[in-house]
Amino acid sequence: MAEKMATREAYGNALVELAEKYDFVVLDADLAAATKTGVFKKKYPERFFDCGIAEGNMISVAAGIATTGVIPFASSFAMFAAGRAYEQVRNSVGYPHLNVKIAATHAGVTVGEDGATHQCNEDIALMRTIPGMIILNPADALETRAAIEAAILHDGPVYIRLGRAAAPAVNAEGYQFEIGKGYTLADGKDITIVATGYMTHIALEAAKLLEAEGVSARVINMPTIKPLDTAILEKAARETGAIVTVEEHSIVGGLGGAVCEALAESCPVPVTRVGVPDCYGRSASAGEMLTFMNLTAESIAARAKETIARRV
Amino acid sequence: MEQVKLDQLKEIARQIRIGVIEGTYHAKSGHPGGSLSIADVLAYLYFEEMNIDPQNPKMPERDRFVLSKGHTAPALYATLAARGFFPVEDLKTLRKIDSYLQGHPDMKGTPGVDMSTGSLGLGISAACGMALSAKYRGEDYRVYTIVGDGESEEGQVWEAAMFAAHYKLDNLVAFIDLNGLQIDGKITEVMNPTPHDEKLKAFGWNVITINAHDFEEIAAALAAARACKGKPTAIIACSVKGKGVSFMEDKADWHGKAPNADEYAQAMAELNGEGK
């Protein structure tokens, strides 16, 4: 297992690593140092275009670039890439189904000290409403590298959600990532914890806590939110009878919302959505914010037991 | 300009205006006013200026056009039809459920449409992206866009203006269709975006002001744009909204309203030279 690394850092490294293999350009909105596109800028300045603090323009520029057959990566914080520029993503990129890759960093409450205005807990919900949009939320550095390459190879818009905080590896070397697939990290029969992004390693910790109490929890890593791997979810619902979703995103419209929508129509079982409970964040360290929002292994384990108790 | 060519362009512009009236009349909706104001500029772009091939609409080295003021799609469709991208007869299907002529331009469905537009302010940015890509790849195609004067109230237009000058996109030409009217009235009364020339100069653009209905002036401005290096060119095209149909001219009311049967008959009679 590799050491801890923020997925934004893995993104910057992946851009450099893949630069000779694929023809793409990188756009940023004055956040290259933070989004880590700066490492690409340093190595390939002729392929890097700063758009200044004008995210709406950046997304529509990216769309224009994509019409000419060049793949643009457009990066900013999730708040601005998905929030500020939502309509540009929807109309300039989504509607014409253009080959634009939006790599949005600083998603979720682990942004930390910058506080509520910068902690974007709504981006998955926003992006999910756009027809044809692929949404990837990698859990660790290895998965990020694979997701970036998969995004390049996919012809169409992709939104990649990345984090600021260092995340431990959850995937082993040799891991084969595929868009649209969930991965069972730990098997179990009493309940399934479905996690995405930064929360995946915390979900694994929760499963260990449950194991110590005699509860067998399956853990599924869901790096693709859209299209959702409904097959792995239905199997988990049938076999374990209860689901907990875990994300550092609002419980409205994110992974939890997507899982509920899917299972309600195919295999209804009790589902508990662990996430940001329809509220704003605040200034604190990433760790403090996770505790403040009850996004801890202990809390997930407790919610899992409650969910098992709701099984009919 | 030779009289023969001038006469040809005038005839093409007349056909475009007829297409605008046909389309909006049969659709019973749409935007005739701002479509009529850009008919002459479109005629010149598609029949004189741009390197395009109706038989090969996706030709990689083609010049690009982005209708940033996407609601005036009827004029773009009439131009593309006149140029042979699709049958003129299809203009009557505008806005119908089984038509490929959407209310606003759809690059996926309509031959010759280089960018989907309609939400104001987004098109000029996309045009910047196309022009930037040409620079990046060392290709020499040019990019043209038409921005509405009302549209220029969108902040993104000025983000794009900054971007184009910053990256020295001298392969980009943006027409500002200065017809002076938007849905709610005069642009100077709704939210004054003028003066466009001084603002764009301050943003670092090469700025030329012309009469949008004078082919000699359109031709001279585009030649000057080609000659200008290191800066994008803005052509402030002073136009008359509803140009060519007497009762539509300079009336905000005709921004987004289709002619009824009587109005259609009168408009067609005027455009066919049957007197007013």
Mind explaining what this structure looks like?
The complex is a heterodimer of chains A (312) and B (276). Chain A is built from 13 helices and 14 strands. Chain A is of the alpha/beta class. In chain A, β10, α9 and β11 form a beta-alpha-beta unit. In chain A, α1 packs across α8, α9 packs across α13 and α10 packs across α11. Chain A is globular, with a radius of gyration of 18 Å. In chain A, 62% of the residues are buried. Chain B has a single domain, classed as Rossmann fold (3-Layer(aba) Sandwich), CATH 3.40.50. Chain B contains ten helices and seven strands. In chain B, α9 links the parallel β6 and β7. In chain B, α3 packs across α9. Chains A and B meet through α4 and α6 of A and α5 and α6 of B.
Helices and strands, with pairings:
The complex is a heterodimer of chains A (312) and B (276).
Chain A: E1 5-6, H1 7-18, E2 24-28, H2 32-35, H3 38-43, E3 48-50, H4 55-67, E4 71-77, H5 78-84, H6 86-94, E5 101-105, H7 123-128, E6 134-136, H8 141-153, E7 158-161, E8 166-167, E9 183-186, E10 191-195, H9 200-212, E11 217-221, E12 224-226, H10 230-240, E13 243-250, H11 255-266, E14 271-276, H12 286-292, H13 297-309
Parallel strand pairs in A: 2-3, 2-4, 4-5, 5-7, 6-7, 10-11, 10-13, 13-14
Antiparallel strand pairs in A: 1-8, 6-12, 9-11
Helix pairs in contact in A: 1-8, 4-6, 9-13, 10-11
Chain B: H1 3-27, H2 32-37, H3 39-49, E1 64-67, H4 73-83, H5 122-137, E2 143-148, H6 155-166, E3 172-178, E4 181-182, E5 185-186, H7 187-190, H8 196-202, E6 206-211, H9 215-227, E7 233-238, H10 261-271
Parallel strand pairs in B: 1-2, 2-3, 3-7, 6-7
Antiparallel strand pairs in B: 4-5
